[in-house]
Design brief:
2 domains; mainly alpha; two-stranded antiparallel sheet
């Protein structure tokens, strides 16, 4: 697969931040009361992710290692501020709906994680595509969860009534507990189908395991240490092979 296409595919499918890596759970659970909120939050995060990846990649040789995390936060915070001003000016209703979760994009683990793990080590174009892939994957995850919650909780999707008048809405799904129910339900289906995720990484084939090793549900105590040891060994082996090829 072309390396440019692979970066987008990786974020949308292979390592989807919501359903595979299970990152950014705070906005995922908090704002997905409707499909519109989900897609709004996802696209907002995607815009910040793409721009921050681009700038961090451009400055990667200039940022000292000792201050790289504060520098990343300053870059991300600058773009979040710009995006928030644009939302306030052109989409005030969406801005009001998302509320405090827009400023909290600054500390979203997906954005800081991609800045640290990818953008700070790779060229600009690949970093932009990595941000695009992760952003689209995050948007798809939030939109799906929001659509399920809105459908079950109010009988509509994107504000359009799709359930018959006889349908009795399950209002718990548009309340806080509903987010946990829907996420658990979708994760259970994913695990049942043996699809790769952070909760069933051990069941994936050797070449398809997550970058973190997977098996988060069992990652405690000595098992957690073993997972990290295995990941470190695999990383060292991969780096050794790259050096030999050079």
């Amino acid at each position: 697969m072309n390396k440019y296409v692979e970066r987008v595919y990786n974020g949308v499918i292979k390592e989807n931040p919501t359903f595979v890596l299970m990152l950014g759970m705070c906005p995922t659970l908090a704002v997905t009361t409707s499909a519109m909120n989900g897609i709004g939050m996802g696209l907002t995060t995607a815009a910040v992710l793409i721009m921050s990846n681009m700038l961090i990649s451009m400055l990667r040789r200039m940022i000292p290692d000792k201050v790289r995390m504060p520098a990343f936060i300053v870059v991300v915070a600058s773009f979040v501020t710009i995006v928030q001003f644009l939302l306030q000016a052109y989409l005030p209703e969406l801005n009001e709906s998302l509320g405090i979760y827009i400023p909290l994009i600054v500390v979203n683990c997906i954005i800081l994680g991609r800045a640290e793990a990818y953008a700070s080590k790779n060229p600009v174009v690949l970093s932009i595509l990595d941000g695009l892939g992760m952003g689209l994957g995050f948007t798809a995850g939030l939109t799906l969860i929001g659509a399920v919650r809105e459908l079950l909780g109010s009988g509509s999707i994107f504000g359009l009534q799709v359930m018959p008048d006889s349908y009795e809405p399950l209002t718990i799904f548009i309340l806080a507990p509903g987010a946990f129910f829907v996420l658990a339900m979708l994760t259970a289906i994913q695990n049942k189908l043996k699809l790769k995720s952070a909760t069933n990484g051990e069941g994936a084939q050797e070449g398809e395991r997550l970058a973190c090793g997977g098996g988060c549900a069992q990652c405690v105590g000595r098992v957690c240490e073993a997972n990290h040891d295995r990941l470190n060994a695999a990383t060292a082996d991969s780096n050794g092979k790259k050096e030999e090829q050079k």
